[in-house]
Amino acid sequence: MKTLTKFFAIAATFSALTFAGAASAQEAPDALVKRISSEVLDTAKSDKDIQAGNNGRIMQLVEQKILPYVDFERMTQLAAGRFWRQASPEQQKQLITEFRSLLVFTYSGALSQVRDQKIEFKPLRASPADTEVEVNSQVISSRGGEPIQLSYRLEKKADGWKLYDVNVLGAWLVEAYKGTFANEINKGGIDGLIKALSDKNKQLAARANKK
Q1: What is the secondary structure of the chain as a DSSP string?
Q2: Tens-digit pLDDT profile for residues 48-69
Q3: What distance in Å separates the CA atoms of residue 78 and residue 8, rounded to the nearest whole number?
């Protein structure tokens, strides 16, 4: 799970730049992402507390500006795959809660790494009637280096577009976690996966409290 957490940190560093502000179900998803990206990007660059790694301020930004636009239930369901149907409603609720916490800790750690990046978006290939789309972009740093290819999968919900997967350099986040989830379930069942996620979150919380 350590490798996956590091992978998601890379994704979160840049996907966090693109989800903040008021969402609109009528606004095109690529226009939404473009419009709101500057708010989080500018905040992460200019906020001295965030740059200094102030965990409380970073968590506040994540809670207010990012989480409302992430569909954690769908992400957890996709990551659990066929095992999702084997989980009881209470187990499903616990999985969503623990997975959400894991991603929140990772988002928070990634935001403090934002410096001089900018995002360029590619033309959206979708029709107005589509309820699921993929927005493709690349992250460019003024310090040079190869652009980082970054894609988002979004679904149109009753309350606006919601992010449910991120692709960095050809690897989809949900698919990456799917293998880890399956391994934990094969070892200890659904409760084993819940415990593994809980233990990881406790480690991350302890680490954050030391800062």
Answers
A1: -HHHHHHHHHHHHHHGGG--S---SSS-HHHHHHHHHHHHHHHHHH-HHHHTT-HHHHHHHHHHHTGGGB-HHHHHHHHHGGGGGGS-HHHHHHHHHHHHHHHHHHHHHHHTT-SSEEEEEPPP---TT-SEEEEEEEEEETT-SPPEEEEEEEEEETTEEEEEEEEETTEEHHHHHHHHHHHHHHHHHHHHHHHHHHHHHHHHHHHHHT-
A2: 887 777 878 878 877 877 788 8
A3: 16
Name the pTM for this structure: 0.80
Round to whole Å and give the CA distance between 183 and 162. Answer: 28
> pLDDT-derived band of residue 111, with 50, 70 and 90 as boundaries?
low
Q: Which residue has the tokens 């992460």?
A: 44
Characterise 151 by phi-psi region: left (phi > 0), alpha (psi -120 to 50), beta (else).
beta
Say what the alpha-carbon torsion angle 72, 15, 65, 89 is, to the nearest 10 degrees. Answer: 0
- Best CA proximity match to 109, nearest among 40, 17, 13: 13
